[in-house]
Design brief:
With 201 residues, the protein is of the alpha/beta class. Helices cover 16% and strands 28% of the residues. The longest helix is centred in the C-terminal third of the chain and has 13 residues. It comes from Corynebacterium matruchotii ATCC 14266.
Length: 201
């Protein structure tokens, strides 16, 4: 049995693995966490005030900010075994916000071959063999994306469940609008679960 819990923005927990505990994420994500995965270095994905004294895996730009953790630099293609889960690292670079802005390394994490957290990009499906994904953490609002791109990515993956992430920049009305669009465009298995409530798989 695997417990998936959303803690706001891109912060999620897979059992005792915390992914992207950022400044817009409820700090409760760290309660009971034993490992941390970071997709990239931006503060909305890496809150230095709440990540302490744990093994942390991620790209160099992210982990080098942490001074009191057991840090591990990882790359696309790497494979990890954490908390009884097999994790394959995918990804490349952060999606383009504007050509004048730097694109840090962005890593996605494929967990047990069936759960995908892409961070701040839509990774190439063929390149990373992203097949048979059951649970997709789906970015829905960001300076780097359009809703049409979100819809197309979800339809290319065809997960059983699509769970929204990267949405702290939206008001309640904005979230409702995005939800209505993703539902109308038949994003596979789209549902917005309550935060801090575990989904058992």
């Amino acid at each position: 049995m695997t417990a998936i819990t959303l803690f706001g923005h891109s912060g999620v927990r897979i059992d005792r693995i915390a992914i992207d505990p950022g400044i817009f994420t409820n700090p409760a994500i760290m309660e009971g966490a034993e490992h941390v995965l970071l997709t990239h270095s931006h503060p909305d994905h890496c809150n230095l005030d709440i990540i302490h004294n744990l093994p942390v895996y991620g790209p160099k730009e992210a982990i080098e900010q942490l001074t009191d953790c057991d840090t591990h630099e990882v790359y696309p293609g790497d494979e990890l075994e954490l908390d009884g889960h097999h994790i394959r690292v995918v990804g490349g670079y952060h999606a383009v916000v504007h050509p004048s802005l730097n694109r840090p390394t962005n890593l996605g994490y494929l967990i047990d071959g069936r759960i995908l957290h892409p961070g701040d990009e839509f990774p190439d499906i063929a390149m990373h063999s992203l097949n048979d994904i059951e649970i997709l953490f789906l970015p829905v609002a960001a300076p780097w994306l359009k809703v049409s791109e979100t819809v197309e990515f979800a339809h290319s993956i065809l997960p059983r469940l699509s769970l929204p992430i990267h949405d702290a920049i939206l008001s309640a009305e904005g979230k409702a609008l995005v939800d209505s669009i993703l539902t109308a465009t038949k994003v596979p298995g789209y549902v917005r679960p309550d935060l801090l409530t575990a989904i058992e798989l």
